[in-house]
Amino acid sequence: MSEYRVRVATGSFLGSGTWDKVSVSLVGAAGESPALRLDNFGKDFRRGAEEDFEVTAPQDVGEVLLLRVHKAPLVLPRPLGPLAPDAWFCRWFQVTPPGGAPLHFPCYQWLEGEDSLVLRPGAAKVIWQDSHPLLLAQRQAEIKERQQKYRWSEFFPGIPRCLDAENLKELDPNLRYSVSKEVAQKSLLVYPNIALALKALLTSQRPWRSLDEIQQTFIFPKSPTSEYTFEHWQEDAFFAYQFLNGSNPVLIRRCRCLPENFPVTDAMVAPVLGPGTSLQAELESGSLYLVDHAILSGLHPRAIDGQPQFTAAPLTLLYQCPDGTLLPLAIQLLQMPGPDNPIFLPSDTADDWLLAKTWVRHSDFLVHEMFTHLLLTHFEVETFSLSLLRQLPMCHPIFKLLLPHFRYTFHINILARTGLFAPGKLIDQLADRDVHDLCQYYYRDDALQIWAAIESFVSDIVGIYYPDDSAVSRDSELQAWVMENFQEGFLSRVSSGVPSALDSCTGLIEYLTMIIFNCSAQHSAVNSGQFEFSAWMPNTPTTMRLPPPAAKGQADLVASLPKVNTTCHALVLFWGVSHETEDTRRLGTYPDQHFTEEAPKQSIVAFQSRLAQISHDIQERNQGLVLPYTYLDPAVVENSVTV
């Protein structure tokens, strides 16, 4: 007979506790115990509780290798019979064998109904570190079970494949929002929906009568950024600023040579450039920048309320003045030059120039929502997450590293696929755009700091578990994960630049850094400011009801803007996704302790310390800015894509 002490921690959020029976089987090198009931006097497995149990095994199982956990409905005396099974969220188990040190078994999973699972001690192990047949067999069994549970599906041809779940009811409870988060997220939309409905704005299909009417119907709480946007949206400097620090700060690139389809001349830009210089001189000096929305060419928007909508694919040339201010020089709304596609200039009438800039803002909205935001954060992150579940066991160090950064991503993506957006494809890298010396580019400055912090943290973790490049190559589970990412997420396209295999520690570090950065900082940068820059709808119209002007002198801005109901539905959406709710976890926060060894714990502490310093520096800088840039402050960046 061998006595073991078992300590169990139950989750602290709503619905975590259970009335069901819980038992454990100890699997060791010398055998396996029968199921041992965990039962004290009174109610066990209460929400937020850590409870101790004493169990006696009929024999010594030797070194404990695995822990089988069983949950079954509690059976009451007749005539009551069994209670209906309920869910239980288990944080962890701790098993203390006779005369031995405690063994920690991380869990952090829901068990629904009559259920069971197998856990192993918390120390992370790469597959080539496991030699015991029981442990190797368990790795394979776990992966096989998950591959049957989590399957790939095609949402739309040509974009990353996704989880096979058509709605939230089909989503595994471990991938869904917590009850508190789901309630808070829905509650956030109650006020704007009721307020707009009472004014009959959500159902009004009429156009806006004037800009003043748009302003008077605004019912949302204001922020310094939304106020600044309303006051300065017509100004050239603010128009250009949004390419640097708005919701889509990833398209601007240095222009050393004008595209052939953008025939800007010296005479066109001379009023802004001033005397003593020329278009060619500024191109050569590196002071000109280009934003090209060519990816929108050929896009055919759907009708809204039975009326056609229109798109453009503009090219925008910008100039960084000697004082560092960025200003627009010229705008061409369609890709093919010609007499019916004029180049709009700051010297045009105020109405023509403002309408041209509004078309660019609309185009930037489309690229931002479909590509920069939805595809490059939400959908591609889901690819990495799904393949992680299918190819890496819980004990793998990369699984432990990445799992917190995939929290709630499946839930929000199912909501997106079933009701919000249409997908597409665009890839753009910061370094390739030659923007290192653009002034007031706070997105770039903060993003590079956070990237470096993540890279340092990832380098520490990789160094703990992969002593050399051959250790990466020999990790068959890791290679299977990378290959599935390439095949399912990037559709086996070599042109994507995404590897199908990794053969070095350096390559692995870069790969993991990219994933964590996209899950956290990049999503924050392209998501958090949506409402603030869009609250004043003319600054970011979601659709346009008239075609791009084919000549100057034809501007009708208000008639081009979305109708009342389209505007209001978009504002409700932006309000919902731009404001945090309950149950958020900041970048570098890991309350679920998947790593149990001291070395990775120290790396996490160092990572948190570096992020705290970055946050301090950003907040200090922002004190001197008229319009603070806050979206990449680690104090507000979430660990994962959750909204």
From TrEMBL:
Please report a single Pfam family linked to this protein.
Lipoxygenase
Give every PLAT domain span. Answer: 2-125
User: What is the official name of this protein in its record?
Assistant: Polyunsaturated fatty acid lipoxygenase ALOX15B-like isoform X2
Write down the InterPro entries for this protein, in alphabetical order. LipOase, LipOase_C, LipOase_C_sf, LipOase_CS, LipOase_mml, PLAT/LH2_dom, PLAT/LH2_dom_sf, PLAT_LOX_verte
Q: Which UniProt keywords apply?
A: Cytoplasm, Dioxygenase, Lipid metabolism, Metal-binding, Oxidoreductase
Q: Which SUPFAM superfamilies match?
A: Lipase/lipooxygenase domain (PLAT/LH2 domain), Lipoxigenase
Q: Pathway listed for it?
A: Lipid metabolism
Compartments where located: Cytoplasm
Q: Which family does it belong to?
A: Belongs to the lipoxygenase family.
Q: Where is the Lipoxygenase domain?
A: 125-643
Coiled-coil stretches are: none
